[in-house]
Amino acid sequence: MKCHILSTLRTRTVLLCAGTGSLMALFSMYLITPSNEWSKYMLIFNMNIESSVTATHSLSSCSELFNELSFSANSTNSYINCCNDTELRSNNTGYVCNLTMQHRLMEILNIVKMPGINCNALFNGTPLAAAKMNTTGRQDDIPIKDIDYLNLTQDCENFQTTRGYIMSSLTQEEEDFPLAFSMVVYKDAEMVERLLRAIYRPQNYYCIHVDLKASDNFINATSAIADCFPNVFIASRRIIVKWSWYSVLEAEIVCMNELWKYSKWKYFINLTGQELPLKTNYELVKILTAYRGASDVMTNYKCIGRHNWRWRGYPVPFGLVKSVGSVHITANRDFVDYIVNNETGAAILNWTKLLHIPDEIFFTLLNANPKLGIKGTYTGHQDSCDKRLFMTRYKMWY
Q1: Which of 37, 51, 191, 363 has the fewest CB atoms within 10 Å distance of its CB?
Q2: Which of 250, 252, 275, 360 is catalytic?
Q3: What integer best gives the mean pLDDT of the chain?
């Protein structure tokens, strides 16, 4: 597995790794913070994928799904070749070829090799690998202060160009498959803006929830950034978010309600302000198309006994099966519809306010109980206590 520097900040390095012959993502980015605490956001293929996808449609095997997703190996190079080939362009390949996009994609390809970094060790949580990552790479970028964004966004068109935003859907497939993102943020406008830039496409929708306790400079910066894009907005209701409290879940629900007003998007993905994508928008669309309507929500009900302390003695309503998981999901519109519009969904949400860390219970509870009638939820049989029972993210904490 070879690793390269994609970009650097004074306090962090973004790494891009390319692997061959692996079911994992072709492109893998890591965000390393000075405190050695890091998280990774990725869609990862594994052998549990069949039971997740067959929730709504049948696939004959995991290899069939992998074949559907094998596009990713040369997707960027294929785009460049298409844009350079007059005959291909004239044959309606679905690519939107313009010089600006071609130039930017070529810049991405022209990355610098990162010597001596073992990506497998990083995935396996080896502290030495993380420590080496923190001390490796170019540290020549000048950080952008929150207050600086007020000046940078005075001319939105110039801001979009100089910061490198992709202002085209690029392909017809992406145009026809818009996504909705929530971003729950509270600090470091530059990191938030880099995340937005990495996932931005004009056909998608972006809700940014800014913590009510965030600084004035931060909220002003994120508001100024959002104002430069018609499909990016700050959540109209802001709350104080505290870890393990209901407020973590509430911030997500706020954005779900506001994103629901836009009828075109196919899937909802929720993010924090300290993440970066491992997949291009094109790859996400291909992967989610292969899901055939299934949602990707971590669901763990086999080994629930160890989590009984979370329930605080309160019985689960409606005779539902207990489950624990992650607040971070990739959900179809039906899943979000049930949360924002269904009375039973509202009752379950209200019940979670009684629990400890409700954000790790609500989404997974809906996904683990197909009797609720939500399309695309889990209908398989869990035979493992593996904590990584979903593909949206691969998280490691140091």
Answers
A1: 37
A2: 360
A3: 75
